[in-house]
Specification:
- The complex is a heterotrimer of chains A (110), B (327) and C (119).
- Chain A has 4 helices and no strands.
- With 110 residues, chain A is mainly alpha-helical.
- Chain A starts with a helix and ends with a helix.
- Chain C has 4 helices and no strands.
- Chain C is mainly α and 119 residues long.
- Chain C is elongated and about 70 Å long.
- Classes of the chains: A mainly alpha (110), B mainly alpha (327), C mainly alpha (119).
- Chains in contact: A-B, B-C.
- At the B-C interface, helix 1, helix 2, helix 3, helix 4 and helix 5 of B face helix 1, helix 2 and helix 3 of C.
Chain lengths: 110, 327, 119
């Protein structure tokens, strides 16, 4: 039983780190500001969520797990809000999304 | 959780490598906004490094203060001074570079005499620290040794530090306190429903967490400074989302000014009371019939004083910077 | 166990010196303050690394734990962080007033304006 818990916690931790790595690659390589915000949001949800789940599996049912659950709730509340605030601020300042086709360019209006 | 089993040397080195990379980027970056953001990230990663080095209270304070208040005030200063980027930049200044290399070389030469990192036999661990670790359980009776040293053994230092925070607030009041004409900071975020609902959900939680940190500082990482800064962060969030006018109606200027001084006065009053009861200044043993209980009361009261002053000062500083109109 | 030896201290000294270089070499006042912030955090890191004990854990008394990290540098550095933020806040207020008086936050331009006034 302990071995299964250990193994699943390891899988969660490694998967969470993988998502965090993907998210940083997205922030570096994606062409457009808005898609980069989307990439940064991956760390908040999948990255942090899986790492916290892995840690909770290590800690078992205890006060530590309750605190980890609270941290996850807080991240879920603030992460998407931060992405929204970033996107809204950029839009207000006039940054247009990078669009590809002529049809899209014609129909985008403020 | 046994600190000895986890191999922290490797994590230390990786985090330090991150920090060196960030600092290099700060030097090379022309854009001031980016440099301020990198400073916030620098503070957060150094908070992680402090955690790895077992300094939990310091990590807490660095994350709250460095990544929170410092960044906010720097951003507002950039907005007020219309700073965008450095005009003369990337000139490699040879004089300062030489000076810095020489000083660095001297310092590194100095470290050769130091005990290696983490050595338990190092001289710094034998005298004062050993006494605090061994005796603080009986003399003061609270688990967090840092709080007992901060509040009781070195209470004079903490009193001085609270007075420094108070003096900085006075200085900023004098510099930025006089209103003048100009364009007022906008309330652009208020009509955004996502931010309003999130803020309404988060602000009470942040305030309760600040109170928890304040009073739980005896048993875990925490205390007056961290709690004060977290409380101020809740008010900063409110101001950012709902606008300065509404925030100033709730946190009025006069009570804020009184609270800035009130915390320091509370701290000093505890000292005067202990003198009146027959002991030295800030000798908490005299506050109750049992010395250990007296220590508990003393630390509780002075941490409260510190928390009140720090919260009021951070809020006042933020309001002063935001109230200042752009010309 | 990776023996870090003295590398920690050297990395922290590199950080300190980079912060100091930014304070001395850049003329933009806000950039100087950013460099000062980096310098302060590096100094704090140096003191905290002195306090670390190999097998110790955070200095919170608990049943069954023998070795603790040294609490004295933690206390001193807590004070240092708070004093640091007070200093930076006051310095930023000064920068705002300087901008109001001179219209620029570049140190060499301010020095030129002062020298031109004295003539």
């Amino acid at each position: 039983m302990a071995a299964i818990l250990d193994l699943s916690s390891w899988i969660c931790l490694v998967a969470g780190s993988f998502f965090a790595l993907v998210s940083s690659l997205a922030v570096l390589r994606l062409p457009d500001y808005y898609s980069r915000i989307h990439g940064a949001g991956i760390t908040d949800t999948m990255g942090a969520g899986l790492i916290l789940l892995g840690l909770a599996l290590q800690a078992g049912i205890s006060l530590v797990t309750a605190k980890l659950a609270l941290v996850l709730i807080f991240l879920v509340l603030t992460g998407p809000t931060a992405s929204h605030a970033l996107a809204k601020a950029a839009y207000r300042l006039g940054l247009d999304p990078v669009l590809n086709s002529e049809k899209d360019k014609a129909s985008s209006s403020r | 959780m046994n600190g000895g089993v986890i191999d922290t040397g490797l994590i230390d080195m990786i985090l330090l490598a991150f920090l060196v990379a960030i600092t290099w980027a700060i030097v090379r970056l022309r854009d001031l906004f980016g440099a301020v953001m990198l400073t916030g990230i620098f503070s957060l990663i150094s908070a992680c490094l402090f955690m790895v080095m077992d300094a939990v209270d310091v990590a807490f304070t660095e994350a709250a203060v460095g990544a929170g208040i410092s960044t906010v005030l720097m951003l507002r200063t950039l907005a007020l001074t219309k700073g965008r980027s450095e005009p003369h930049h990337n000139r490699l200044e040879l004089g300062p570079l030489l000076l810095v290399v020489v000083i660095g070389a001297i310092l590194i030469y100095g470290t050769f005499d130091m005990p290696r990192y983490g050595d338990p036999q190092a001289p710094v661990h034998t005298e004062m620290a050993a006494r605090f670790i061994e005796q603080s359980g009986e003399e003061i009776g609270i688990p967090n040794i840092v709080t007992s040293v901060l509040g009781s053994y070195r209470g004079y230092d903490t009193f001085g530090e609270t007075t420094v925070v108070f003096t900085a607030a006075i200085g900023v009041f004098l510099l930025l306190g006089v209103p003048r004409r100009g364009r007022r900071a906008g309330d652009a975020l208020r009509n955004d429903i996502v931010l309003r609902i999130s803020a309404k959900a988060l602000i009470p939680l942040i305030m309760v967490f600040a109170l928890y940190v304040q009073f739980h500082g005896d048993y875990g990482p925490g205390g007056g400074f961290q709690a004060g800064v977290i409380w101020a962060a809740a008010i900063v969030l409110y101001t950012l989302v709902f606008g300065l006018a509404r925030a100033e109606k709730i946190f009025r200027r006069r009570p804020l000014e009184l609270l800035v001084a009130g915390g320091v006065l509370l701290y000093g009053a505890v000292g005067v009371v202990t003198m009146a009861l027959g002991g030295n200044f800030l000798d908490y043993d005299y506050l109750a019939s049992d010395p250990v209980a007296g220590q508990h009361y003393g630390i509780l009261l002075i941490e409260l004083g510190v928390g009140i002053t720090v919260a009021a000062v951070m809020v006042a500083l933020f309001f002063l910077f935001v109230r200042r109109r752009q010309v | 166990m990776v023996d870090v030896g003295l590398y920690n201290y050297w990395a922290v000294i590199v950080l300190m010196m980079t912060g100091l270089y930014v304070v001395i070499a850049r003329s933009n006042l806000v950039k100087k303050l950013i460099g000062l912030n980096v310098f302060q955090v590096a100094v704090i890191m140096f003191y905290i690394s002195i306090g670390k004990v190999d097998t110790g854990t955070a200095p919170i008394l608990e049943e069954g734990i023998e070795a603790y990290s040294n609490p004295v540098p933690h206390v001193l550095m807590l004070t240092a962080i708070v004093v640091g933020v007070a200093t930076i806040a006051l310095a930023l207020a000064l920068v705002v007033r300087l901008y109001g008086a001179y219209g620029t936050i570049e140190e060499d331009e301010i020095a030129e304006m002062d020298a031109a006034e004295e003539l």
